[in-house]
Amino acid sequence: MTTTLVKETSPPAAPAPGSARGRRLRRRGRIVALLFVLPALLLLGALVVYPVLFSVGRSFFDASGTRFVGGENYTEMFRDPATLKAIRNTAIWVVVAPALLTGLGLILAVLVEKVRWATAFKLLLFMPMAVSFLAAGIIFRLAYDENPDKGVLNAAVVSVHDAFTGTSSYPTARARDGQGLAKDTDGAYRTRTSASPGNAVALGLVGVRPDDLPGDARPAYAAAGRQAAPDELRGVVYLDFTPGGGGQQGKVDRRESGLPEMKVEAVRDGRTVASTTTASDGSFRFEGLSDGSYTLKLPASNFAPPYEGVSWLGPALVTPAIIGAYLWIWTGFAMVLIGAGLATLPRDALEAARMDGANEWQIFRRITVPLLAPVLTVVFVTLVINVMKVFDLVYIIAPGPVQEDATVLATQMWLVSFGGGNNQGLGSALGVLLLLLVIPAMVFNVRRFRRSQR
């Protein structure tokens, strides 16, 4: 029997750190790492570093780019009223939008934990993030339309308004000249001559299309032929227009319709003593009036134009309206990030607080929010950086006449450089200002990320 002995061999020793072979290996590792990083560095230089340096240099030249003007563009930037308005609007965005988004995200993240279908709810709120700013701008431009037939928000506002205050059925109605009615300064109509109990009066109006008459409107001819009792003042309010032509002005013809739901007042000595509303055939009557002369009045409320809703994209509300569209897009983002931080909270601390008798509001205010402070800070700073660069929503949603009232630094930079100003020197100065405003927030965010990794 033959026994074979195998000699164990130890692995080759690592080169000494200071040896020539060790230095060659380290140098080779650096070269390989640089080769891998080089494409990314070239792309970063071409898309970020070069444009930044070019913009800084371009900001010191005039509009044509041929004459060096030094800091003149920066001086002009702070003298231009449009730029000052853009800085003011940007400050409003920075103060309002991130704070609202962080607060909404925190509230929704906490509440979603108590919802049975939490995943579906999160998905629903996060879906707007998949919509481009261009598409979102078009959606909200239509939603904010002043015409209630197009704008969904104004349609809702008009519906609620009309449900509580009502609306006029005859906004286009008017009296014929020389037919016995005079118009007051407030838009009301009153009879030129007085009437007394026992009389019947016909009040003719025009300006209403037969198709726009209420569905219960009936012909006024029979009502106009009724005689008034000695103790009543009666009459008829009718459309002084015969479909198809014919008829006589100032006289109720057989095919002319009464105007229902028209308010009529009896006025004596400048004071309204009685009021009523016309029936479906336009007839009305006042009973129990004392003897004397009365003026019949059709109040201005009969002819009030319909309520058109809120001017969402007017100079006063255009910036809050655009911020509302921004909230719709980014609330899901804030909720998901804060929800991820909420999932890492120590549950034993929350349960201990409940066992000690703390209610949910105390737990939220004194435990949940302090523990989430690092996450809330990161979300807030990230949103600050994002709102400083907002462009698409402002440019698309704000109509041309109020574009200047809604402008921010990003849109002002584009308008000055390419949107008609053709002054790329001033536009570059605005770009440098925007960069200087964003850098502190970026540095703060990077430092927080590094501290969290440690």
UniProtKB/TrEMBL annotation:
Keywords: Cell membrane, Membrane, Transmembrane, Transmembrane helix, Transport. The keyword Transmembrane helix applies. Residues 1-22 are annotated as: Disordered. Signal peptide: none annotated. It is a multi-pass membrane protein. Residues 87-445 form the ABC transmembrane type-1 domain. InterPro entries: Ig-like_fold (IPR013783), MetI-like (IPR000515), MetI-like_sf (IPR035906), UgpAE/MalFG_permease (IPR050809). CDD domains: TM_PBP2. It comes from the Bacteria. The chain crosses the membrane at residues 31-53, 91-111, 123-144, 325-346, 367-385, 425-446. It is found in: Cell membrane. Belongs to the binding-protein-dependent transport system permease family. This is ABC transporter permease subunit. It comes from Streptomyces bullii. The lineage of its organism: Bacteria, Bacillati, Actinomycetota, Actinomycetes, Kitasatosporales.
